[in-house]
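Write out the 3D structure for:
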Amino acid sequence: MTPAGHQHPSQHAPELRAAARHLGRRRFLTVTGAAAALAFAVNLPGAGVAGAAEFDAAKLTDDPFTLGVASGDPLPDSVLLWTRLAPAPYQADGGLPPERVAVRWELAHDARFRRIVRRGTATAHPEFDHAVHVEVGHLDPDRVLYYRFRAGGWVSETGRTRTAPATRDRVAGLRFAAVSCQAYHDGYFTPYGHLAEDDVDVVFHLGDYLYEYAVNSAGGARKYTDRVLPDLFNHETTTLEDYRLRYALYKSDPDLRAAHAAHPFVVTWDDHETENNYAGDIDENEDPPEEFLLRRAAAYRAYWENQPLRRPQLPDGPDARMYRRLGWGRLAQFDILDTRQYRSNQAYGDGAHVPGPESDDPARTITGATQERWLIDGWRDSRALWNVVPQQVTFSQRKLDLNAAAKVSMDAWDGYRASRERVLAGAQSAGVENLMVLTGDVHVGYAFDIKDDFDDPSSATLGTEIVATSVSSGKDGAEKPANWNTYMTANPHLKFYNGRRGYVTVELGREAARADFKTVSAVTTQGAPLTTAASFVTEVGEQGLKPV
C-alpha cells in the first residue's frame, strides 16, 4: 500500500540495468538465466563457496547475534530454527569475512537447558549472508521447546518455540496472532513488545515485513536523538546488498527481536518486501521485466535468508514457492497464500476504480491457476474443523464510496472478482463450513462477514475475514478514520473498522472462534499501552461475526 504522495523512482539501479543488458531478454526469461543474471548483478559467489575457508569463531570479538533468533512453520515432528551472524549489522559484510562459520545449536525442554532434546552444529555460509536455518526433526508433537545458538564464546538469546499437535489429534483449542505492515520509518514496533508478552501458540505475518523506502539518519518518525543511522539506509532498496542491509536494520529492533524469540512465526510476503504494488513480473512503473525480475530475485533471496523458512521456500532466481499448508491436529488447516508472485497486472492502471470488463475478465487471476487448484484441492482433502487462509490483501468486497456504482481497490480481491468467485465456489463445493481468511496490507483493522453475494446482506455468510492492522505503517492512525462512516454504510458486511496500530489474536475452539483486536494509541513515541478495541465470535456451523 503506497503512502499518499510518495514519490517513487522511475528507474532501477544501474547494476540491474547492466545485468539485464548483459544477459539479454530471451536468455533471461528462464530460471537458469535469471539466477545467472542475479549472480552477475550482485557479484554472488559461485558454486564453490561451500568449500570456502572456515573462519575461526573464537576470533569473534563482538556479539554475532545482533539480529536475534527466530523459529517458524511448526510441524508435529519438526521445528525450524533461524539466526544470522552479524557482529556489525549495519555494514555490507555484517562484520564477517567471506568465510563459513560453525554455529552450534541446542534445543531443550526447559529455558535453562537442563533437559536437552537435541544439539548439533550448522554452518553459516557467506553466500547466504551468514544466515542459519536448522530443521530439527524426530520430535514429539505438541511440545513447547527452547533453543539457542553459540558461535565462539558468544551465546544467543534464548528462543521459545513449539511443535504442532499430531495430525489426528482432536485439539481443544489454538490461540494465534496475526500481524502485518511494519514500516520502520513510520514508528516504533511497540505492538511487538506487547505481542512478545502475549500467550499465543504461533504468529502469522501477513506481509510487508519491511519497506523498500528510504530511512533517514533519524529513523523517520522515530526521530532518534540517541543514534544516527548510516546513510546506506537513506535510499530505496533495489540490490541484494540493499535488501540484506534493510533486514539488518529492521531485525535490530528490540521489540521485533522479542516477538520472534517468544513465538514461532509463519510468514508470507506482500509487495513491499520487493516493491510497492508489483504484479508478477510487472513493477510499479512497468519497467522492462528483465530488470524487475532481477530486483525480485534479490528481494526474494534476502527474504529467505532473513526469515524462519524451510528449504522448500528457498528461491530459485526470481521464483519462490511461498504458498504452503500447515495443520494443527484436526482443529485447523492453514493454507498460506502468495497473492503477488502469480497475479495478473492490476486493472485500470491500479488504484480505486469502478469494476468493469477489464477487472472482471475471468482470465485474470490473483493467485495463478496452479495455486488456485492447490487451495481448492486442499480444502477437498481437509479433515480440519477450521480452514484458515493467511494471505495479503482484502478479500471481501470493500466499497470505497456511497455511489450506486462504487469504486473498489484494483489491488485487492475486488480487482480480481472472478478469482474470488472461483475460490468461494471451491470452498462451497469442498464442503468447507468454517472458513476464516486472515489479511494484512491496509493498515487498519477490519472484521468482515464473507457473503455469498456481497450486494445482498441477506445472502448466506460463507465465512469471516479478520484484517490485522499494521504494526507501525501509517504512523499513529486514528480510532475512527475520516472515511469510517462511508465504509461502514457502504459495506453492511463490515462489522468493525479501526485505524490504530496493533495486532489481532484469534482463539479457535471446537464450538466457536474469538477474535480480539488489540491496539496502541501511538507508535511515533515509545511505551504506549495495549488495549482491546473490540472482540467478536463466530460459531462453528453458523458463520457470522457477533460482538462480544
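The first helix runs from residue 14 to 23.
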